[in-house]
Each structure stands twice: as structure tokens, then as C-alpha cells.
Amino acid sequence: MFTLLVALATAFYLLRRYVLGIRTLNNARKESLLRELGASGDKRVVGFFHPYCNAGGGGERVLWTAIASMQRTEPNMISVVYSGDIDASKEEIIQKVKTRFDIELSPNTLHFVWLRKRHLVEDAAWPRFTLLGQSLGSMVLAWEAMNALIPDLFIDTMGYAFTFHIAILLGGIPVGAYVHYPTISTDMLARVKSRKAWHTNSDAISSSSVLSQGKLLYYRLFMYYYAQSLRCASFLMANSSWTKNHVDAILCHEDKLLDVLHTFTPLVLLRLLQFGHVSPKEAKIVYPPCDTREMATFGLEKRGPIILSVAQFRPEKDHKAQLRAFETFVRKYPQFKEKGVKLVLIGGSRNAEDAARVDRLRGLAKELGIEAYVEFIVNAPYPEMLQYLSRSSIGLSTMVDEHFGINIVEYMAAGVIPVTHASGGPLNDIVVPFNGKPTGFHAISADEYADHFHTVLSMSSEEELELRSRARTWAVQRFSNEEFEKGWNESGWKKWVAVGA
Ligand SMILES: *[C@@H]1O[C@H](CO)[C@@H](O)[C@H](O)[C@H]1NC(C)=O
Ligand SMILES: *[C@@H]1O[C@H](CO)[C@@H](O)[C@H](O)[C@H]1NC(C)=O
């Protein structure tokens, strides 16, 4: 027992010396960074942990919009991006952001710290215990990051909450995050508990009780530490109400038994570092900005009787439900057949499976006797999709519990009236009343979809124009850069790095 205590004390003493060592070195590093950028005066450094910053996806649009807006409104802040894209240079990344997102970044207040250990957070590195492996990997990566440069504020924009501990331990700095997706959700935990087979819970595991118990313990421990990590944050943002609800549930996740066990591990000392820290009670929703500039210029009048669906030919999009809804519509209201009504399905097909799915959908259309009114456009070029968005009346989406639905934002910005499944993001975030008036329709059964099609296609032209323009105004505004910037402002990030703080 005594030896153990001595060993622990020595370990902590060495760690403490190590930490003080990097913090001292860091002052010089910061000074040399400011010199390199030619910056003078009292500057603050905001670090963005985003190892895949050059990927060009939705998460990267969020990152660069945030940085561009910070550059514009906060001249005393330097943005530092921790990136594993070591094959690209700063200039190349700035150039790519410009061509990919049309976002202008200034090189004067932007700096990159290159991380060489990014392979540690890749799926391939952890064929088993992926969640745990990636989380530990992200901590090592954050260790590398803090050794290169400690910012004044650390913001994770990729969902690596376990890195918070490292930023706090080595940097002694406040942390925050923009969460796109919870690493583990309370649903996942519940599903393992109920031993239902689903994608990461393979059949072999769910049918064997011992393994299942083991897996449950693994998830339970993981959830416990994930919740603890999130609570270390000073502020949290979520990209949608779906994500916010999950993060909020995790923030109040309790596990009394693990609390007690945890007290007997050295990890409990990490809490001392957070003495007096107030955990966030909830995440703030900050919707990602969507680029709707082009669609928002389309004329709103003279739309054809086209019902448009823009969605990859993936199973969860439920294109079958679209065909059934359309069949119900033309059966109930056959007069629209003469008016030339059409269902147009535009979508990407990624592989042979998707292609086979499209074939089956064509078969179903034939079976339902609607093939003359249905058109499939597979892997359409972007301009062709825009063409359809500018001419269609209705935008259809049948996916159940979709987390968001950028295609629906695009329908609305284009003036296409959305008819979506009554669940998820389309119900809670996107197609919601604006100034007390509807911006579209929700349905569950084929009959309901059909009746909404009928409503839209029978509107008077004034009514129709008003609805189209309301949907557009709402979508363009709600998912704009300004709204996003306002959300960041309100998250309170700035008070953690205010000059003079
Ligand atoms: C939030 O992020 C997740 C994961 O990247 C994504 O699936 C979802 O569509 C995003 N939500 C919004 C509102 O962009
Ligand atoms: C966000 O805050 C900055 C000042 O900190 C201000 O200049 C900017 O206009 C704000 N943005 C919005 C959209 O409120």
C-alpha cells in the first residue's frame, strides 16, 4: 500500500514538472508564432481541434465559417487549427476553402499546427474496441497538439471530447466544442441493454449472453467517461435539435456505481484540475450554415406540377414510400394525370447495391402502374438538379427520423414546398412555422402525403406564392451565415478568452 502511494506521488510529481516544463516553453512558442504572423499587441489564440480540416465536408464548412467570422469580427484573436493534413500547405488549404466553400480566409490571423499521429484516430487502427481506441488515440493526438502549442482556448469541432482532459491537464485552459454527433448516445446504450441486433452490435454478440454482458459493461464505462468529458467543457454547441437532445441527455447521465468505483482510481485526481468548474447544463443549437445563394434566386412563379425528390438511393431514404404516396395520390385524384403531374427522383447511386435498388424501384413503379408518371435521374450533374429545383412545385422527403436534411433546406430556398415525414430534423428544425404560419407539410401515411400533394397543387396562385416565399425567407435566414455567427456569439465562447480576462 505504502509503495503504491509513493509510486503515485512520484508519478504526479513528474507529471507536474513535465506540465510546467511545456507551459514555460509555450510562452516562447506563442511569441514566435505572433512574430511569424507579424502580429502585435495583446493577442489571444483560439485553437480548433480538427484533424481532418482539409476534407471539404459539412463539418469543415462549419469550421471555416466560424474562423472566417472570427477573423472579421475579432481582430485580436489568432485562430490555430490542429490538423493532420500534413500533405497540404497553409496556402493550399486556404485556396481549397475558397474554391470549395467560397469562404475567404486571411492568412494573417490563421496558423496551422501539423499533427503526425492522426492515424491513431482512424477506424482502421482500431478494428476492435473502435470507440475506445479512437478516443484514446485522440488523447494522444491532443497531447501532440499541446506539446506543439497551447492556445488560450481549445475548441473541438470534430467530436473528440476525450481531448478536453489533455487540454485541461497540459494547458490549464478552458475548452468548448461544436458537436455534430455524439460519440455514443443513450439510445446505443439502451439498445445493447435490450440485446437487440443492430449494426455495430453484430448478431454473434447479441446472441451470446456473456459477450453481451461484456459489451454492456464496455458501453457503460464508455458512456460514463464520455459524460465526464463533456462536463469538462465550458460551453457546448450542437448542430441540430437531435444532437442537442442527445448531448443534454448525456450531460445528466448518472451512474452511481461507477461513481463510487471511480473514486478509487487515480483518475479521480483529474477532478482537482477542474475545481470550481461549472459544467454546462445543456448544449446550444447553432445550425450549420447552408449555401443557398444560387437557389434563392430562382423565380417563384410558373412552377410545373412536378413532385421532386432529391436523395441518394440509400435504403433509409425510403424511396418506396415515395412511390406508394404518389400512387395513392394519382388514384385518389386522377384528374392530375391529365394535368401532367410527375414524380421526379433525383439521386446519387454510389455502388452496385444502389444501382440494384434503383432497378427494384423502377420495378415497383411498374407494378403500381405509375411508371409513365415517374422519372428516375441517377447521378445527375449539379446544374441539372438546380434546373429541377427551379421548376418543381413540391419537394418530397420520406426518410424517418432524419437527423437533419440539407436537401429540404435546399427545396425551401429554391421555393419548392416541402412535404416531409413527420419526424426528426424536418419536423423539429426545418419545416417549422415562421411568423406563426406554415412553411410546408408533414405526413406519415401514404394517404397523408397524397392529400398534401393535392393541397399544394390545388392552391390559388396568391396562396401558393405566399407559401413559397415564406418557406424561402425562413430557410435562407435560419440557415444563413449571419444566424450561425449569432449562435456562436451567444454560445459565450468569447468570455473565456476575452483580452484582459
Ligand atoms: C450534424 O452532423 C451530423 C454528423 O455529421 C450530420 O449527419 C447532420 O446532418 C448534421 N446536422 C446538420 C443540421 O447539419
Ligand atoms: C458577433 O459578435 C461580434 C463582436 O464580438 C459582432 O461584431 C458581430 O456583429 C456579431 N455577429 C452577429 C451576427 O450578431
Describe the structure.
Pathway: Protein modification; protein glycosylation. It comes from Phanerochaete sordida. It is a single chain. This protein is an alpha/beta fold. It has two domains: about 40-290 and about 485-495, Glycogen Phosphorylase B (Rossmann fold, 3-Layer(aba) Sandwich); about 295-480, Rossmann fold (3-Layer(aba) Sandwich), CATH 3.40.50.2000. Helix content is about 50%, strand content about 10%. It has helices spanning about 1-35, 60-75, 90-100, 130-150, 165-170, 185-195, 205, 210-230, 240-250, 255-260, 270-275, 320-330, 335-340, 350-365, 380-390, 405-415, 425-430, 445-455, 460-480, 480-490; strands at about 45-50, 75-85, 110-115, 155, 175-180, 235-240, 285, 305-310, 340-345, 375-380, 395, 415-420, 440-445. A seven-stranded parallel beta sheet has the order 3-2-1-4-5-6-7, sandwiched between helices. Helix 4 runs parallel beside helix 5 and helix 6 runs antiparallel to helix 8. The radius of gyration is 26 Å and the shape is globular. One 2-acetamido-2-deoxy-beta-D-glucopyranose binds near residues 486 and 489. One 2-acetamido-2-deoxy-beta-D-glucopyranose binds near residues 73, 482, 485 and 486.
